[in-house]
Write a structure and sequence with these properties.
homodimer, Rossmann fold, seven-stranded parallel beta sheet, 11 helices
Chain lengths: 303, 303
């Protein structure tokens, strides 16, 4: 429904809202910028997600964030007022581990990332190293081929606040071996803003490693459709699935690629001004429907 | 001459070599990968450059390396056996300072780079900060708008072995102001190889900052033609200028863009295999002539 143009749900009639709510069985929601920003729930989001659950929808939290394991994400969601189980969390840290295990990977991972990915890898029995600060002493010029671990068979790049020149050097050097896999969690340029300080996203690090390795990463997070393939094995019906997000170039593009319905909320990265620009540029895809914030849906259903 | 296809100078007749040597008055040579690798001269390169000088050619050392000031580059060249004066060194550190001074820049530079750029900026009276390790304590999430210096009017990105997440964050946050200039020394993906260890080049950092700032840098180094504009004010005749390099996508592309003759040597980044690929892909541009190493020209002239 509402396929002809971006539709502000607030302008829908009560019947249209009811029809919309009946049009999906599964809700996939992005987290940062839709449900919360940093450690604060966006007002109304917990109630809206819990309302979907009450209506009998299956819920999945689909996040490109790779800094936490699934159980920690579930705890964070619960503390902010969301009903959430670890099995409902599809974080990129989990997806990386699931992907590598799925292809029968048995070598070591050089990980440019955090313990979120490290712990998920460990949970499926995949060895890894690289988390935390790295220093090549006395300086990067002293690094030699004997410093490289010959057992490494994949470089994984996720969010890493300890990114450094030696890490770029090691990642590029492992990737010089064509048999070494190159997997990235996501390519988000930035995190949703909470002030004039820009928080660079994992895409900043992925583009850097792609540049010095002269290779392209396999990206498992949105807008890549790996999540759809993953969920289809659990019986997901794309046509009766709603993807909720705050970014047209990840969440909405992901939803459109996967054949889902899409809802954009304006509490994160994509602003009303951006949406206007996207409408003119015709790229990335536009959402089916928009809402100022996710919680607004509750006002529409009670009216 | 030799315009129809890539010509191996070693296959030229003595008359053709003589004609080639008479076809240019000015020699621009890249440094890393052509004249030296790390701190070792490539055998024959000092003698070849000094031979050009003896023939009365004007010599310029054109390097995308931004880690040294001009006088230090000249000392390095001299120690490796090259005749060289600081005024003949066109390094990107110098070009950044020359560019900013030329446009009347009076604000502060946030510098993701090394003392090479810092000292060149200082020499022209431009204030800067950012060189060396950076730590936002206790972590990046604690950085606030009050940590930003309102006097910053440009972000300059060069080679920085102390690159870190806080540096990306600061660069992107300054660049969120559209009036803030974004200048990069160069976009080289890697340094020339001396082992299986890949040494990421400045392009790795520039692409990262471009990603998180969602802006494109003004790049002053090769293949940008800023060097040609700079030299034309000194009376350079492009048609009688030879550009020597080891990389098709910087040195040779730069030479072709500027209307120079071009000579590729195989002692650095671009390999014979790469050259074959470039010949098929038709991008980046091919050189007019090739030599296995620069010093080989001496054998051709004495034969």
């Amino acid at each position: 429904m509402f396929k002809s143009a971006v539709f502000n749900l607030q302008e829908a009639t009560p019947d249209q809202v009811k029809e919309f709510l009946n049009s999906f069985d599964t809700v996939l929601s992005d987290c940062d910028g839709v449900l919360w920003i940093n450690n604060n729930a966006i007002p109304g989001s917990p109630e809206a997600m819990n309302y979907f659950r009450k209506l009998g929808k299956r819920i999945f939290y689909v996040t490109n964030n790779s800094t936490k394991i699934r159980s920690d994400f579930a705890v964070k969601a619960q503390e902010l007022g969301f009903i959430a189980e670890p099995e409902e969390i599809l974080s990129t840290a989990y997806l990386v581990a699931h992907y590598l295990k799925g292809i029968g990977f048995t070598k070591k991972v050089y990980l440019v990332g955090s313990n979120g990915i490290g712990d998920e890898l460990k949970a499926v029995g995949i060895r890894h190293f690289g988390v935390g600060p790295d220093q090549v002493k006395p300086d990067f010029k002293s690094m030699s081929p004997s410093d490289m671990d010959p057992e490494v068979g994949a470089v994984v790049v996720g969010f890493d606040e300890h990114i450094s020149y030696p890490k770029f050097m090691k990642a590029a050097s492992y990737l010089a071996n064509e048999d070494c896999l190159f997997v990235a969690t996501n390519t988000d340029e930035r995190f949703p803003k909470s002030s004039s300080i820009i928080i660079p996203g994992t895409g900043t690090l992925v583009r850097a490693v792609e540049t010095c390795s002269e290779r392209k990463a396999l990206v498992l997070g949105k807008p890549n459709d790996y999540v759809r393939k993953f969920l289809e094995s659990f019986g997901l019906d794309p046509a009766r699935t709603l993807m909720i997000g705050d970014r047209c170039n990840t969440d909405i593009e992901f939803g459109v690629r996967c054949g889902f319905q899409t809802l954009l909320v304006m509490t994160g990265v994509t602003s009303a001004k951006d949406l206007e620009k996207i409408r003119n540029d015709k790229t990335p895809p536009l959402p089916d429907v928009v809402l100022p914030k996710l919680g607004d849906i509750l006002n529409l259903t009670s009216s």
